[in-house]
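Hi R.,

Here's the chain you asked about this morning:
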Amino acid sequence: EGLPVGLPQFQPAESPHLKGRRKVNSPRELQELQELVNFKPSHERWRISRDLIGLIRRGGQGEKDESYLDKLRREYGRGQVESSNYGLATIGTHQVVLYAMNWDFFAGSLGVVSGETFQAAADLAISKKVPFISVYVSSGVRQHENFAGLTQMTRMVEAIRNYKERVRLPQVAVLLGNVWGGVSASAVPNADLIVATSGTDFGFAGPNVIEAFEGASVPSGSQSAETNLLDRNIDVVLSDVRGVVEYLDSVLSSTRLPDRQHQLTAQSRPSIRNVSAIDARRAFSFGAVGIHGPAFDDSADAEILHPPVTRPVSEDPSDALVERYQRLMTDANRVDLEFVVRYAFSDATALYNYVQEPDYLRYPAVIAAVARIDGPPFVGVGTQPSYQRIGDTVVKRPANPGPEDFAYMERMLDLGQRLGLPAVFVTDTLGARPTLESERRGQSRAIARSILRGIDYPHPVITVVAGALGSGGGLATTPMADHVIMLENAMAFVAEPRSAASILYKTPNPTPDQIKVTVSTMRSSAADQLELGLIDEVVSEGRTPFETVENLHSAIMKSYVSLAEMNEKKLRQRRAERIRNLRAFDIVPDTTQ
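And the predicted structure, written out as tokens:
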């Protein structure tokens, strides 16, 4: 049986994602980052000229009262000049604009000068037409500036919106220490990609505020970057500053548009890498417990395991379908989204981490990557299984996305849309996460929004059902848009067979025979969907997953080359007509009344 899994829930002091978490010295690490990227600060700087608010901190016995200007003068006397600066920097071969907040001045608090600096940084990135990288560390909005400081949240959001509207390059947020309050609820969530170093803490309300309101202490690690990664509030966590710079270089390289668009042909070939001629099964790396990725390379000290070879198929058609369904749930040799972007494309950058547990590779239920084939980048997004070690073998555990996973997918599509990237969706799930918590957090709305987002994407959309497509949660990552492919052993269900049988037979525990009859009569195979006219193509599966991914690559390229010739208007017209005709069954006027 497949078990619903996703990233684990946070458990204080024992969660594997907290293994290896370190302490961050924000000022020192900001200096290291700026040195690594050859940061050249702008000479344009500002400071508060007079105190318009008048907030005073009363001094204790024997102490003077302190005004805002008094505090500013003391900071200036220490050689500090406001809490942020900006300028040009170089990441790899990419010129960027870098905005950076510094904890050494007023604990990185957000005020009018920080807002002015951020606006100037965004304007420079627009004028230079370069990526905009923002490094954040902040205790919140500066109390001394009251509502004026609070409005800088709006100012930062508008600056990002304007940049995104005018520049087709990434806007990346880098969290380099504590990030609380206003910055966490304005600039950070509006970035295309949110990256943090291990040791960062992140949230709107800090632990003291939460404790004061709830009357209970906040568990250690519950607002860490690592925990926020599990909750999909942060996209990628890296071990240190050097890792951040290397990763940003990879992201910028992967998203750089070629001089000539659509230079592919249907004969373009994938880069099938790291394949042993002796053993062409998939290989799974079980390394140290903790957060891993986003690099695809296996760690040197990891244990490499291979899944077993697929068992023979029964001669009885009904039994064969049941066995196929079981293999879709458990066979780790089948291709998934990570395998597709890693091997069917010449270059790829993951936009996610996974958590290594002692016997589990736990992936987010929905992942994304930017991948290239001979020049043009694609955005790849979809459901991703996790993998469990059992003895000396590996089995697949299906993904069950929740509202936060669908929200992540929408954000990755927003990035792809703005950069003008074609999208490849890959689906393998029995359905959305069936929990009361997911329902209360808007599962239905999240699925509906994802369906709309997929069919409304303005660039070519190629959809691949690699394993199971289960229920509306599966449809949410399977846009019925421009070209829909199913692998020959993939299956599509209105509900996974056990659930469907329980509905048909009105029992929570259907018998194996009832499940068998349900599977064999519900017309769920790829061949069935092609015959019904619901999909465009069935791709044959090779003897190995590497042969399968080559076949899939060829199908993706052939369809993309055709779709790339259409402008957006024609693409949308063709898509709308296709969706209007998703009937499968002949429909005739009802003349019985």
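The chain has a mean pLDDT of 88.

Let me know if you need anything else.
M.
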